[in-house]
TrEMBL record:
The keyword Transmembrane applies. The gene is Dpm2. The chain crosses the membrane at residues 7-29, 49-74. One of its GO terms (molecular function) is enzyme activator activity. It comes from the Eukaryota. One of its GO terms (biological process) is dolichol phosphate mannose biosynthetic process. This is Dolichol phosphate-mannose biosynthesis regulatory protein.
Length: 84
């Protein structure tokens, strides 16, 4: 069963995820329909970043997953060689 700390951390992660989702949704879906001179545009990054940020995050995720898999495979080979 989850402790109080686990629940607080989980609630925080869900809250941050919802805020990011709402911001990105407004930025990508709603903002193009609002006049470019409207004051709300100053709270959002330029539209080019709507593609660059998720692309960079995805590439970093793939890099870290690949490095982790490589690390685990090399470590398991070392353990197998020592066992022989």
């Amino acid at each position: 069963m989850a402790t109080g700390t686990d629940q607080v951390v989980g609630f925080g992660l869900v809250t941050v995820s919802l805020i990011i989702f709402a911001y990105y949704t407004a930025w990508v879906i709603l903002l193009p329909f609002i006049d470019s001179q409207h004051v709300i545009h100053k709270y959002f990054l330029p539209r080019a970043y709507a593609i660059i940020i998720p692309l960079a995050a995805g590439l970093l995720l793939l890099l870290f997953v690949g490095l982790f898999i490589t690390y685990v495979m090399l470590k398991s080979q070392r353990v197998a060689k020592k066992a022989q």
